[in-house]
Amino acid sequence: MIYSSELIKGTLKTIVLKLLADNKKMYGYEITQKVKELTFDKIQITEGALYPTLHALEADGLVTTETEFIGKRVRKYYSLSPSGKNKTKEKVSELADFMDTMKFLLDIKPKQA
Amino acid sequence: MYRISDQQIDFMLDDIRARGVEMESLQQNLLDHVCCIIEQNLDANGDFESFYQKTIRTFYKDALWEIEEETISLLTFKNYYTMKKVMIISGTFSAAATSAGIFFKFMHWPGASALLVLGIAVASFLFLPLLFTLKAKEKTKTRDKIIIGLGTIAAILLSLGILFKIMHWPGANMMGVLMISVMLLLFIPIYFFTGIRNPETKVNTIVFTILAIMGCGLFLALVNSRPSIQIHAAENSNQHYETTYLYATEQVSLNMAHALKDTSVAGRNLEKLHSLCNSICTQIEQLKSNAVTVTDYLDPEHANENAPLRKINYAALINPDNYDLPTAILFGGTQPDAANIEARPALVKLKQDLKLLNEMVLNTYKRHSEVLIDLSDKNDIRFAHPVSWEVTNFYHTPLSNLLVNFTQLQINVRLVEATCIH
């Protein structure tokens, strides 16, 4: 099952921030591949959603970028800024809290092992 | 694994640009991304071009520039809360400054104009544009955005027009007329016919349209009316000045009758002076009478320099605020060349006689020049340069004020005459 883009949209920032926190620096394609790998293809981040988010994070000062030339093309690596690190913790705990609330709200019983 | 050549990189970059992506960093991100996919998934001897086209197609729904649009909207959304905050603060500030300015103006306290200018400038150039930006962002249809844009333009013109009107700056009426045109010819029709189709907004649309048209009507009346308070004040002072003039004439004539018993040279000079003053006052009375007649009938044909003098009832002037017709009989109508406004013979003759009186008082009676009738050019708020005595006092002057000016002149003539008797 692939999750709908509406579900991904609200959590994309958190996903990207958390990945950067765990992986120091990453480029766009790497992020999409990593997410795919970690979620067993269940979450596939589209280019149309990823790059606007990365630009917004950069504008907010949460991530910094460095560029690397690969032959003729330029690769942009993203990494967390100090304020991005704080924001990541905040965002992750907010989302965890949200998921608990959703479980309660939607009355989802934990799956029997 | 496929190896991408430099030409292929150039080709892809050009293609991404051609698809409407203009931000350089986004171009580079997308280029690197598509290169990674090609390198990972295309066989070493695969078909580069068709694979590229297939890959880039998966990036978007309708067009590649959607990604850039989304980026820009995310970037501006970041400023959304700042903009909203600035909008609320500037709106509150300008409302406070404008109200305070109006209050100061009523109380004749200093700083009224500064507050008004500041308040209205902040409203016109900060608050309203921000309001437009934020409101337009909420709407998706171009039609709605146009309506909000037109409304904002009309509102800016309205507030600036009122500011210019209060400050007596040129261009106020032009802005007012422009605002009314934008409002009545563009905004209201589009707004009305859009809003009335939607059952939810139907009632609000009708109510707002009626209010807006009423508002335009009131504003138009304001733009085109002359300051009625001044005219009202002039109507009241007219009777007062008339009484003063009649009293002054009576007193001067009594003293004159006494003085004229002297048959020496001095007595004969005084007689000349007295008859000149009488003639001047009669000429003025004639001008007043004619001005009242033409404005009553609203017809310049009724002016007749030899018409019998009429007794003016100041409480019953029919058109006290009319200035076209008095100007027509005194100057032959509005003159195209504001620098050289020429009076008609009756007013020219009056000015000549007043000059004669001044000379006589100065030469024969050696009176101080301060008692003379002031016939000099004056600065006038309506013109960029000093203008002649007759233009200052009588050109484009509403009947009520014109009559006050004439009667004051009569009083002055009698006062000058009185200083010569003793």
Topology:
The complex is a heterodimer of chains A (113) and B (422).
Chain A: H1 5-23, E1 25-27, H2 28-38, H3 47-59, E2 63-70, E3 73-80, H4 82-105
Helix pairs in contact in A: 1-3, 1-4
Chain B: H1 6-18, H2 24-41, H3 48-57, H4 65-78, H5 80-107, H6 112-138, H7 142-167, H8 172-195, H9 202-224, H10 228-259, H11 265-297, H12 324-331, H13 345-363, H14 389-394, H15 399-421
Helix pairs in contact in B: 1-2, 5-6, 6-7, 7-8, 8-9, 10-15, 11-12, 11-13, 11-15
The major pleated sheet of chain A works out as: 3 strands, antiparallel
Distance between the termini of chain A: 21 Å
Give the CA-based shape of chain B. elongated
Q: What share of the residues of chain B does DSSP label as strand, in percent?
A: under 5%
Give the helices and strands of chain B as they follow along the chain: HHHHHHHHHHHHHHH
User: What is the average of the pLDDT values of chain A?
Assistant: 89
Oligomer: heterodimer
Overall radius of gyration of chain B: 37 Å
CATH class categorisation of chain A: Mainly Alpha
Tally of DSSP helical segments of chain B: 15
Computed structural class of chain B: mainly alpha
Helix content of chain A: 55-70%
Number of strands of chain A: 3
Count of individual helical segments of chain A: 4
In helices, the fraction of residues of chain B equals over 70%
**Percentage beta strand of chain A:** 15-25%
Overall pLDDT level of chain B: 86
Q: Largest interface by residue count?
A: A-B, 24 and 30 residues
